[in-house]
Amino acid sequence: MSGGVLPVTGVVLAGGAGRRMGGQDKGFVMWRGEPLILNALRRLAGLPQVLISANRSLARYRALGYEVVVDERDDYQGPLAGLRAAFRQASHPWVLSVPVDTPCLPADLVARLWDRRVPGGIVVARSSRGPEPLVCLADASLGARLESYWGGGGRRVQGWFMGAPTTWFDLREAEAINCNEPADLC
């Protein structure tokens, strides 16, 4: 789609408990002088719908001017629960997710994922460490697959899209940095 707005709902997954970060809400942890949430939102700039998946600090997230979606349950069932909530609120035929704690994703991430999409499929990032399945662009029709997988007890992020047409998107090591612990913020 050249020259127009891409039909993509973006979602920042910021709903974790932050146990390894001392219980802090990672979205508001400072990285290079700003909260991680602002960095993640910048990656999704220009999309017609951007959601923040969060389970606490809801007023702070809403104050950023984006719709906030919450997990169905409040016991931190993992990132797939946040992705599920986002799929339910997505109003566009594609859903792109980024975790709030991966601040070095490329600035042109949306365009690069978009260029690799296949109808009915998913584009998943990977690094030398393996798949980075929370960085993905999925056809919204895969939401039904996610619901079925979840209903069957599945909670592994990679498990829900198994069998769907999958294209891989390679991240350089520096782009895949994940800030799980305070030492990772350097």
Automatic annotation (TrEMBL):
Q: Which reaction does it catalyse?
A: Mo-molybdopterin + GTP + H(+) = Mo-molybdopterin guanine dinucleotide + diphosphate
Q: What's the subunit arrangement here?
A: Monomer.
Q: What is its main location?
A: cytoplasm
Domain spans labelled MobA-like NTP transferase: 10-157
Q: Which GO terms describe its molecular function?
A: GTP binding; metal ion binding; molybdenum cofactor guanylyltransferase activity
Quote the EC number: 2.7.7.77
Keywords in alphabetical order = Cytoplasm, GTP-binding, Magnesium, Metal-binding, Molybdenum cofactor biosynthesis, Nucleotide-binding, Nucleotidyltransferase, Transferase
EC top class, in one word? Answer: transferase
The source organism is Acidiferrobacter thiooxydans
Q: Which InterPro entries match?
A: MobA-like_NTP_Trfase, Molybde_CF_guanTrfase, Nucleotide-diphossugar_trans
The entry's family comment says: Belongs to the MobA family.
Query: Gene Ontology terms, cellular component aspect?
Result: cytoplasm
Key word Transmembrane present: no
The name this protein goes by in its record? Molybdenum cofactor guanylyltransferase
Instruction: Provide an example Pfam family for this protein.
Output: NTP_transf_3
The protein's gene is named: mobA
Domain of life, per lineage: Bacteria
